[in-house]
Amino acid sequence: MPSRRRTLLKVIILGDSGVGKTSLMNQYVNKKFSNQYKATIGADFLTKEVQFEDRLFTLQIWDTAGQERFQSLGVAFYRGADCCVLVYDVNVQKSFDSLNNWREEFLIQASPSDPENFPFVVLGNKVDVDGGNSRVVSEKKARAWCASKGNIPYFETSAKEGINVEEAFQVIAKNALTIGDEEEIYLPDTIDVGSNNSQQRASGCEC
Amino acid sequence: MFETEIHDLSDDADYAAASQQGPSSKAGHGISNQSYSSEPENAEIVYLKDNVTIHPTQYATERISGRLKLVKQDSLLFMSWIPYKGQSSNARLSERDKNLYTIRAVPFADIRSIRRHTPTIGWQYVIVVLSSGLAYPPLYFYNGGVREFITTVKQHIVIVRSSEDANVFLVNNFQDPLQRTLSSLELPRTISIAKSASSSSFTNSPSDGNLERLDGGPRQKGSDAARDISIQVLEKFSLVTRFARETTSQLFRESLVDDYRANENKKSNRSSQDKPREIVSNDVRVTRSEVPVPSDPLEFDKLSLVWGKPRQPPLGPEEWATFLDSEGRIEDFTALKKRIFYGGVEHNLRKEIWAFLLGYYAHDSTYAERQHVMAVMKSEYETIKNQWQSISPEQAKRFTKFRERKGLIERDVVRTDRSLPFYEGDENPNVHLLRNILLTYSFYNFDLGYCQGMSDLLSPILFIMEDEPESFWCFVSLMERLGPNFNRDQNGMHSQLFALSKLVELLDSPLHNYFKQKDCLNYFFCFRWILIQFKREFEYDKTLRLWEVLWTHHPSEHLHLYVCIAILKRQRAKIMQEQMSFDTLLKFINELSGCIDLDAVLRDAEALCVCAGENGAASIPPGTPPSLPVEDECIYQQDDEAL
């Protein structure tokens, strides 16, 4: 089914305060890093055009406040998400321990129609810090956790150095597409995936 | 019967005098209409317009039409507007209403300014503001003629365009010689226009059969009923404003007039005041293909005209000294706060005055008492600070909550206002002070702890106070009011966002309906504004100014909510025109940061607050921050305290 329509894919970045959510978003969208970012208050998003197999998509990347106390606001921002990016700081144990909480909180608040198969991507950020010497969470441990949660794709990134950021977001966009758009594009060739239709799309497509 | 003295509207006694004047003028009722009997012998009518109408209620169908005249007598110019008798469009309008709104021969000496409004679609109108600050309700020119009106006035007296708004003409403004010169430069053109304009106004006699109402309704037989009824003065501000609000709102809701272009004009006027203005033709009606934007029911420029309180220069040392008695007490704290509301405080006085505004020092304390308080509080600060400083690494290992808090604070202070010289650079000692104060606060108020946003609130206080213990206690005072913003259950934020939605409903129902339709009534897009008091929305020095203004709690503790509405109102046309949804609205609001005109917004906020009056206050639940919390033994209730 030929489609040249531009479609919106909504991505939410979650994780503890200070793990680098804003920096990752800005590195991916603007190819820039700054030491001057302020703690995010409330929420904001950036958009980027991405192309996949001849089709254009608008990736809408949401950056939210990291403090637990603001989680209750999530319900307004998470709805209609097509992919959720969980970020931790490889140098901070607590931020890794929180991943489970962020994931569960997201599933509760966004209430996607098929929580089992909702696409997550995990990023272990700040691998550049101190040449890796201050690292406390090993890649192995992180990958094990991702595997236990239904094989969540995992990337080790540095927003500061731009390491793996592009690659990670490629996968994020692709996975967002699998649930965000599948039924819309491929449905005619598929039988009985109607259960996916109730997937909420807050912003719909921009035609 | 030109009794000019009774048009001085500056106090209530005149209102009474004006009311008394009513019966005597009613004696003239039986006199035939065409004779202009109300004008004295030597008066010359230089302008006359029929079907000039006011809308006393919110229903467009309720209107009072009348005749507007400019009369010249003994080189003085007077304006009058007399309603037609006995043909109200609606029975609900009584003769009393008509009497109330009648403008009977007000001399231009008593007029401060005239604002003209010539929307592309819909009726043109003018608002006349008197020297006393009172404004007459908008006079709608159903048959056009606003330009003629202005040019005729210009022919007879000196009026100059306001430098702030090209649609405002200032009367009796002789203070600015430059403006007068500029104005006189326009004269040749003006006269030629005025000549034709004024001549046509004379041919447009009351019996002219071509008069038609714009709304296509039956022609009013206004011509046979013109007469003076009484001299009336308009009511107080709130009434006038409510009037303007209801009227405009309903009018425009009914006719779906698109005011967007007019708003755009206003904007461009501000930036290019010197460009000659193109005067929109009286009868042009443009059909727009874009989304119609319901007009702002409050129409800002009207309001700023009605209240028109310009911002003042900040309070300086000499003036500050006059507020203190010989022992250092502030004699009239209310007056001081009011003064600060209108202009803020000079930077080098902030350290001293902020302590009073925040309530750290009692306003009736003496110099000596404050010295004492400072010493006591300094030592008390050290005591609390010592509580966390004495935690050993071994103890910290077993104190997760402390470690987490410390980590959170340390992550935030290094990204708080680091571009400011005061906080910039590696190992900046002021960043270290931020950390110390926030950690100490999280022990002083252990229940509340630390929450993101607090570092934004502390930064300006430390920048001004420069002293660690004093900054701490001032921050404590501020958090007495704003602490609930950071409650775990977010109830402080929710009550403010709720109040905001109620206030928008009250002050701009079309905008409220728009947000409702777009599922934006949670007002999360204003979350950052409220949580940290617009700290991220203005340059640093503007934030300092805004905060000291907000801390005066004049004219309301909740002025910040009216500031929100003022900003939203300035963007309402764009928001609705572009059909912003939750996402785009949030982004749009975030990106307003750094682009908000603080003085203008404060003026609007004050006007909105006065305008909302008691209804506004009633929309805000008791205890809504920054009101002090409703007394409770435990301020920050925690779940485990139930045990």
Under CATH, the homologous superfamily of chain A reads: P-loop containing nucleotide triphosphate hydrolases
| Rg of chain A (CA only) | 17 Å
Largest sheet descriptor of chain A: 6 strands, mixed
Amino-to-carboxy terminus distance of chain B? 81 Å
What pattern of helices and strands is seen along the backbone of chain A?
EHEEHEHHEHEHH
Give the class-level CATH name of chain A. Answer: Alpha Beta
Salient structural properties:
heterodimer, A: 207 residues, alpha/beta, Rossmann fold, six-stranded mixed beta sheet, 30% helix, B: 643 residues, alpha+beta, PH-domain like, Helicase, Ruva Protein, domain 3, Cyclin A, domain 1, 3 domains, nine-stranded antiparallel beta sheet, 24 helices, 9 strands, disordered N terminus, disordered C terminus
Q: How are the SSEs ordered, and which strands pair?
A:
The complex is a heterodimer of chains A (207) and B (643).
Chain A: E1 7-15, H1 21-30, E2 43-52, E3 55-64, H2 74-78, E4 83-89, H3 93-97, H4 99-110, E5 120-125, H5 139-148, E6 154-156, H6 165-180, H7 182-186
Parallel strand pairs in A: 1-3, 1-4, 4-5, 5-6
Antiparallel strand pairs in A: 2-3
Chain B: H1 12-26, E1 44-54, E2 64-73, E3 76-83, H2 95-101, E4 103-107, E5 111-117, E6 124-130, E7 139-141, H3 146-156, E8 159-161, E9 168-171, H4 177-185, H5 187-203, H6 237-255, H7 260-271, H8 300-307, H9 317-322, H10 333-343, H11 350-357, H12 367-389, H13 393-397, H14 400-413, H15 429-444, H16 454-465, H17 468-482, H18 491-507, H19 509-517, H20 527-531, H21 540-551, H22 559-577, H23 582-591, H24 598-618
Antiparallel strand pairs in B: 1-2, 1-7, 2-3, 3-4, 5-6, 5-9, 6-7, 8-9
Helix pairs in contact in B: 3-5, 6-24, 8-24, 10-21, 12-15, 12-17, 14-15, 15-16, 15-17, 16-17, 18-19, 18-22, 18-24, 22-24
